[in-house]
Amino acid sequence: MPVIAPWPTTRSAAQLPSQRGDADEAMAAGTTVDHLTETYRAHYRSLLGLAALLLDDTASCEDVVQEAFIRVHSARNRVRDPEKTLAYLRQTVVNLSRSALRRRILGLKLLSKPMPDMASAEEGAYEQLERDQLITAMRGLQRRQREVLVLRYFADMTEAQVAETLGLSLGSVKAYGSRGIAALRVAMEAPA
């Protein structure tokens, strides 16, 4: 509860200022644009120095201090006491400087990650030729050999799964697979 000072009894009730009005006037003094602007102008260099201690380049320091003014200006109705305006500005400068440093660190982490290795154009063309040659060789296999190899190596199925899928015995799957690979080797090694 606020302490209420006794009023002199020589004034009439009409002459007494309302207690609520005094409190509103005090709060309004801390929230005015003029007061905030004057505080900002008077302490701009010290706020800039504070940002400079936390950051390393002048442009970022100036950006942080200006952003702090904008944020405090937009939230000036929360600054109840005019004496705390500078404290709000300082704290906002510190918080914005921390955020700027976090963004920089994150950016450096992202930049330090190596880019994935990309195949050169020659390697890509060579791989395409090999793929084309493999597809042509696969088409030259017997139907069952091709089915077994596609299910076993391209669909990544076990021999038992291939046998079940094709309705063959496990021994037949192994035989078709073995003969298919041998035929592919011969076809792939043959000059085109």
TrEMBL record:
| Keyword Cytoplasm included in the entry's annotation | no
Task: Output the GO biological process annotations, alphabetical, semicolon-separated.
Answer: DNA-templated transcription initiation
RNA polymerase sigma-70 region domain sequence ranges: 40-104
Q: Where is this region: Disordered?
A: 1-21
The UniProt entry, under Gene3D superfamilies, shows: 1.10.1740.10, Winged helix-like DNA-binding domain superfamily/Winged helix DNA-binding domain
Superkingdom per UniProt: Bacteria
Molecular function terms from GO: DNA binding; sigma factor activity
Q: Polar residues bias located where? A: 9-18
Q: Which UniProt keywords apply?
A: DNA-binding, Sigma factor, Transcription, Transcription regulation
Q: Where is the RNA polymerase sigma factor 70 region 4 type domain?
A: 132-184
Family, per entry: Belongs to the sigma-70 factor family. ECF subfamily.
Q: What is this protein's record name?
A: RNA polymerase subunit sigma-24
Q: Which organism is it from?
A: Streptomyces eurocidicus
Classification lineage: Bacteria, Bacillati, Actinomycetota, Actinomycetes, Kitasatosporales
